[in-house]
Structure formats: C-alpha cells, structure tokens
C-alpha cells in the first residue's frame, strides 16, 4: 500500500496563533516540532495498516517547516518550494490513499486560523459554485487523480468542513475552536493517539483502498476566486482563459488536477503584487 500525506500546520495539535506557524514567530520552532509529531502519528498509523511506501509533503507556507531529522524514518519527505502542485506535490494515481494532517477551515468560516491559501488576500473561493477552501479543493483534486482522501485532522471546524465535503472521510479533531486565534486543546498524547488510530482504521477498513468520491466529474470544472485586491484580479486577466465576474473576482475552467496547478500560478502572481501577512 502506498500512502500520501499532505501536512499543513494551522490544524496541528496545540497551535492557535500566527506566532505558532510563521517563520520568525516567537513559538514557530516549537510549532514545527508539534507538526512533526502529528505527521509521525499518521505515519505510524499507516505502517500499522501495512503501508510499504509513505510520502509526506510539507504543505504549509514556505514548505520547509518539517525538519527531515524529525520525520519518521519510514517516510519520504517532499520539502521546499516552488512546487508545481503545491500542497499536493507528489500525489500520483499509484497512491492508494491520501491523509490530510493539520488542515484548517476555509476563509470566512469559523475555525482556528481559518483562511484559504493566502491569509486574507483570498476572500472567497468556489468550485463549480460550491464554497471551497483548502480541504475541498485538495479532496476534489485527489479524486480527479484517482486517490481517496481517507483521514483529515485539524480543529473541529476543519473536521466539520471535511465531513460536509465527503461524509465517508474519517476526521480527527485535535482542538476545538473558541475563536480564530483561540481553542480548547486536546491533550497532545491523546490527540496523536487518535490520529494514529484513525489512520490505521481508515486504511485497514474492509473497503480500503476505497473508490474516491467522483468529485466534479471528468469534464471541466470552474474555479472562482474573490481577491481582496482588485489589482490581483486585473493582472490575472492577462492569463489565457481567465475571465472576471466583477472587479475583484476571476474564474477559469479546466480539468482537475490541471486547474489546481493553474491556481498555483494565480497565487504566485498575487504574492508578487501584495505584501500582506498571512493572518490579521
């Protein structure tokens, strides 16, 4: 069994603030160690289920958060950027299952450190008219690749968002949001044990590896993004296939996962035009 793990940071056990997840933040070094512990719990669960190959993609911010020596030796780590597929770099049809560790709810939704990809620069996103964030877009793209998402870990709001997208996905709430920068924390050892157990059970279930949710289907999908800055939307209109619905909202059609990769180009354009911190 080949297992793919996409590891974000905002939904990791114990982390609640930008200072925990941003390089140079006063608690970032501690945060990256906690991130590795959640990832390693997922790796142990995959090994218990019989995985023979495990790929971990560091999917947060600079994508150099996980220290190689801190990651379980049974896993191969994809680290650094740029990556053509960003948070899903290295995901291929040969993977039997995908695990999302440390994910968070979408922009504008309740949840610890909620946002969609770029702090507050992205105000809203829709996939085929359906509100979407990192969880939904990752799930839909993985489905298009042919890989089922088996487990999502994060706060209770992220878990609810994942369940709304696909009720068959197992979720592990490692904390319970009190506000965007506050949470009731599950004890660390308990949370990691729950991650390990959920991954082992999800991969060992009689139906695993499961047939992935068909997602948006084999035809083209439509991705719509509302930006905070009109200058980002205006600049993106210079890319082939991008159209506008208003001064700050652009859309494009295409088949996943190619549309996901194109969205990565949008974010690089936006980053070149703005200089805003991820959280405010």
From TrEMBL:
Which keywords describe this protein according to UniProt?
Metal-binding, Zinc
Residues binding Zn(2+) 1 are: 8, 10
Domain of life from the UniProt record: Bacteria
Q: Which GO terms describe its molecular function?
A: metal ion binding
Would I find Secreted among this entry's keywords?
no
Active site at which residues? Answer: 115 (nucleophile)
Annotated Zn(2+) 2 binding lies at 8, 60, 104, 134
Instruction: Please report the name of this protein according to its UniProt entry.
Output: M55 family metallopeptidase
